[in-house]
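[SOLVED] Predicted holo structure with zinc ion

Edit: marking solved, answer below. Original request kept for reference. I posted the sequence and ligand SMILES and asked for the 3D complex as structure tokens.
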Amino acid sequence: MTHVQTFDGPVEPDALGATLVHEHVFVGSHELALNHPHPEWDEGEAVERAVRGLTTLYELGIRTVVDLTVLGLGRDVARVAAVARRVPVRLVASTGYYTADVLPGFFRTHGPGRLVECPDPLVAFFVDDIERGIADTGVRAGMLKVVTDRQGVTEDVARVMTAAAVAHQQTGVPVTTHSHPASRNGLEQQEFLRRRRVPLDRVVIGHSGDTEDLDYLRQLMDNGSFVGMDRFGMEHVLPDERRASTVLELLRLGYGDRMLLSQDAAFFSRVTPPSWRRRNAPHWNHENVPRRILPMLRAGGASESQLEQLMVANPRRLLEPSSRS
Ligand SMILES: [Zn+2]
């Protein structure tokens, strides 16, 4: 398997073009939506906003967008597929579980040695999503996602990461993380995955751009992984100028082949709804990298070939599934 799975089916890695590797289309909670709908959520309007946004993104030169909305973030691939059909940008779906702490009750009773004795359902979920397709949509996942945050590797987080490692070995699909750079826990993620035989060059330590700790970032990349400079626009965490300076400094130090640029943006997220984003993070949208950040990097001395490496070559190398081990 050397093709990258997308909402439009398998694609040659060379055809991916400029790619944003850590984005979201819609983030929410189905149970909350069913019982306490958010006043700013209107499905028809949200879909139209996503269609307009992704069409504009294509006009700005972006060809592929990875939607890292996995279980725990309200993944609804059928809804995203309705958007994907109407836009020129290619979307990639993902699998994994977003929890920084505990899994829902179902996972407590299901698994080896648990009340309902069975193999860990997480492994089957991840592998099925990658090999068979997600929830009868026929869309296959092209990326695995795991999370550790300030709580570190809790028992359930370890379970998710172990299942992702198994799924990686079975499918060759790359692993991306949500990390907490303030506690430098990308190193812990690397160690955990390495011990479970995930080659670190198949791993992105996500949200690394939230820190300016160059020693830490270099260590992650020297260990072989990509780092996600993937929250441009989240200026309530760190201003874009400072995020860009870090990228420029690491380019000067020769790390151009290990960084990925993205925004972690969403067309609707219940976590931080549109009105909050407009007030508090006006640049946090899918167009920020092509409109503001690439020009900022260019002005700071990045060459066209370096930008091409960040936007095209690195995502291509990441997303191409490795052959089964
Ligand atoms: Zn994200």
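OP edit: Residues 22, 24, 68, 264 surround zinc ion (CB under 6 Å). Thanks to everyone who chimed in.
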